[in-house]
Amino acid sequence: MPNTPHAGAIAQVQAKPLPIRSPFASRFADTGFRGVIVLCALSVLAIVVLIAWQLIVHSELSLKQFGLKFFFSSDWDPVSGEFGALPFVFGTIVSSMLALVIAVPLSVAAAVFITEMCPGWLKTPLSFLMELLAAIPSVIYGLWAIFILAPILRTYVEPFLGKYFAWTGLFSGPTYGIGMLAAGIILAIMIVPIVSSITREVMTAVPQQQREAVLALGATRWEMIRTGVLRNARTGIIGGVILGLGRALGETMAVTMVIGNRAEIAKSLFAPGYTMASVIANEFSEATDNLYLSAIIEIGLALFLVTLIVNIIAQGLVWASTRGMPARAQA
Amino acid sequence: MSNGSLRVQRISLRRRVVNGMVTYGALGASVLVIVPLVAIFGYLLMKGIGSINWAFLTQIPKPVGEPGGGMGNAIVGSAIILLIASLFGIPLGIGAGIYLAEFGRNKLGNLVRFTSDVLNGVPSIVVGISVYGLVVVTQKHFSALAGGVALGIMMIPTVARSTEEMLLMVPRTIREAAWGLGVPQWRTTLSVTLKTASAGVITGTMLAFARAAGETAPLLFTAFGNQFWNWNLNQPTAALPLQVYVYAISPFDEWHRQAWAGALVLILLIVAAVTAVRVVTSRGMYRAS
Fold this sequence. Notes:
- The complex is a heterodimer of chains A (331) and B (289).
- With 331 residues, chain A is mainly α.
- Chain A contains 13 helices and two strands.
- In chain A, 73% of the residues lie in helices and 1% in strands.
- Chain A has a two-stranded antiparallel sheet with strand order 1-2.
- The longest helix of chain A has 36 residues, at 23-58.
- The two termini of chain A are 30 Å apart.
- The termini of chain B are far apart.
- Chain B is built from eleven helices and no strands.
- The relative contact order of chain B is 0.14.
- Chain B folds into two domains: 13-51; 58-288, MetI-like (MetI-like fold).
- Chain B is mostly helical.
- The chains are: A mainly alpha (331), B mainly alpha (289).
- The interface between A and B is large, with 94 and 97 residues.
């Protein structure tokens, strides 16, 4: 950006610009540099377009054969060439919703504690630990869930839920440990850092005067947080929740390892299920005929479109609530 | 709160109780959120550390039933795949970040910023099947190259957005000082702006690298895995997270034991890589200043 305000001032003082040693070479280098940089930027666009194009091209067969019925049929029978994605759509929605139900109250409460309540010296270590949770690879979450979480669910949690809450219909049947409940819990653990860090970000963006004004009216700390902070930050918090939803919908490894991988629709959360991402992970390399392969890629396409929409909504909400400013600026 | 009377001598018991309950509830939630972190690291150390030895780090897997063997080939495979990913993803990401920060205050800039956020949200498994279509189908076999491309794509948005953020924090006056000395734009950006922001850019890049190092889903149909040593970029290649996955879902106790050890090595390597780069760059910065 050579047109700075200073450029004008300098030109007034000095009628002729300073002699530059090699204007041609310099201008050539600048143009070349700019070209390379623009190419890098365009490569981001190109990659997203290529991903979408690949998914559409390779799922064409299934798109033509089944049409919209694909997502409303629950027959998944590769042998007879019948493909319906309903059990996977169901599993993805149920496991993600379960994750949100568990994770959202916890992450908002933790964010409230970190930003509004905890003593200053504890703030940084607590936030750091939360960020650390986000850095653990998904496959390690899965490993831990198989060998530690699932046995705990099987021996303690599921029998308890089955005994006292079986009347809801959500907690009945044999307790395997592995199943929809395990998938929901591990997803919840994985999305807590995302939801919580965005909640903290938007809460920090609420002006300090808001808090002081509510406190001056005689509110207790909780009343101040509820009316002064959470109400102002709610758009951004919802954005963070939706961003967490996007992550949960597409999460593959940890879920595949504990959900049980059975293509059926069961009401009980103890029963095994299947998600869109896990069916791709499990069956992609087994898919021998073209229709089978294109049906799996169509699931990938659907997953791509859904996470795309979810992320766009979330970005919009978060942006609206922090006005596009990073939290650091207000800190 | 529903009581609209003006007798506000003292805060009612109910309001005080609610306030106290919320405070302890929030504290409890924070503790509950940290518990899985402690549990995961605790179990990793407890179950993994006993199985890590020289053989585990240097040998290839033994067939089922034979004790011993290791993940040497998977560690090397991961290194190869990550090297390819870094060579491809980091320059593109930093370039895109420079564009966004220095030239990106226009429609194309907003489009690239938006697309990069979209790419960040694309599930890793979807990136995996797209790269399968692009590289594996073209090459007609699984390869380290395909795995590297998939992980490289995953790195780009993180690197780009963190580079942008760091470059925007460099004061405009520093750029103007360079222009004032007659330094051309490209030289200003590379040796002045980027250099000033380098510590932050490297940190962002390392975060992207660490994330890519633990990714499993994009490698399933690209690098595919391999039970033997492989140095050929055009052949299926083992990777540490893949090996951990395969061993974890296997029915053999010996493999479960190795999965824990592999997971611990994976976490330690990620932490070591991040720390090493932090130390090296901070020393470099010190000398420069």
